[in-house]
Design goal:
disordered C terminus, single chain, mainly alpha, 0% strand
Amino acid sequence: MGLQNALYQKGVPFASEAAVEFNDEFMEAIAYFAYEASSDLAREKGRYESYEGSKWDRGLLPPDTVDLLEQERGQAVDVPRGGRMDWEPIRQKIASQGMRNSNVLAIAPTATISNIMGTSPCIEPLYKLVRRLHRAESPFGQRPQGRGTLERGRDEQAQVSRR
């Protein structure tokens, strides 16, 4: 979520090798810090119930499982391997503290969530949000109260002219 916005702000074309590199770099960072946070939560609140014997418990991080997938399928999985970050401290932390969550990275459906957060849903084209005013609402009165783009003042792109 927000990848399109980030690439636009960096001046990087969406369908470019530079965009792929940027995506790899920031997703690695998200994974790194998400795994670290789950491990820190395990220290505070305990490991998830079925942690013992899990891939996490056996020292396997999700990138490590690509080799297992290749073995199970009996064919090569052509994805980049390795990364830019030093994963050894995270491996040690997980070995010592465990993990609070069995599944750490899941990409939710992003269209609605991105609208709430005022960003792009990434793979979909950018579009303008339109908000209809109910007759009872005054175009000169207070903004609707609530969370999301209106409350955060990020609705500049979503404004429509009021007639």
